[in-house]
Design brief:
Strand content: 5-15%
Distance between the termini: 27 Å
Strand order of the largest sheet: 1-4-5-6-7
Shape: globular
Number of strands: 7
Helix content: 40-55%
């Protein structure tokens, strides 16, 4: 798969760069695949899900992968896979397994990286979370207050949970100018990159709510629309 992605990108070098696929169920192999993807195939990072065989990616056994990602300085893009153990609760009308389940999985993934110390062990990681980071940016202050209620869970953290959001990146697939305003207020406009979910028909006009935003400056809009991602993906502009 990585070879084919590299071939496609080399055929259209002015149009495409790609993420590697990695076998995270075997963390050491995943680290090797990531390095091969970056160094041999000129891929720009990896796309991953939020869990592997029921294991959280904050587990120490995945540290070998996170260490390699930090060493390579590449972007890791996390897109949720759903929450199988909640299948029954999310059944029925409304597409809840996607509408609620996907953002919830992203929230769980990011929260574990914070509270389990992954972001402290590897502070140079470049991680981008799909769908604006799920629910975490909108309710992150509860994480800080949780440390007041359960201080033992936070004693090892080097800073407040909300402060870790400012070292993560988030895509803009949150649909409205108000959602963009709030996300930027929580994490900083410098941490937002354009998201489209293409080819899935979630957002058919993914730039419109960026252009319509009155809270972003023109320079910040330019960053969100491409310049920040270009830096993260090592694209010359």
């Amino acid at each position: 798969q990585n070879e084919k992605l590299a071939a496609l990108c080399s055929q259209y070098p002015d149009r495409f760069v790609a993420f590697a696929s990695v076998a995270l169920q075997f963390p050491e192999l995943a680290a090797q695949q990531l390095e091969e993807g970056i160094r041999k195939y000129n891929l720009r990072g990896a796309a991953i899900g939020g869990h592997v065989n029921g294991d959280e990616l904050s587990s120490p056994k995945f540290d070998v992968f996170w260490k390699k990602a930090e060493e390579l300085g590449c972007l890791i893009f996390m897109h949720p896979q759903g929450i199988p153990e909640m299948e029954k609760r999310l059944a029925g009308k409304g597409g809840l397994s996607n509408v609620i389940g996907n953002p919830l999985e992203t929230t769980i993934f990011l929260s574990h990286l914070i509270f389990d110390g992954t972001l402290d062990r590897f502070p140079g990681l470049k991680i981008c979370a799909a769908h604006g980071g799920g629910y975490l940016p909108s309710y992150s202050a509860r994480s800080d207050y949780g440390c007041n209620r359960f201080p033992g869970d936070c004693n090892a953290l080097k800073k407040k949970p909300t402060e870790y959001l400012k070292q993560l990146y988030f895509d803009s697939l949150i649909f409205t100018p108000e959602a963009i305003r709030h996300l930027a207020a929580q994490v900083g406009a410098s941490q937002i990159v354009l998201g489209s979910d293409y080819p899935y028909p979630w957002e058919m006009h993914p730039v419109d709510h960026i252009f319509a935003s009155s809270s972003l400056s023109d320079a910040e809009k330019a960053d969100v629309l491409g310049l920040t991602a270009a830096k993260l993906l090592n694209i010359k502009v």
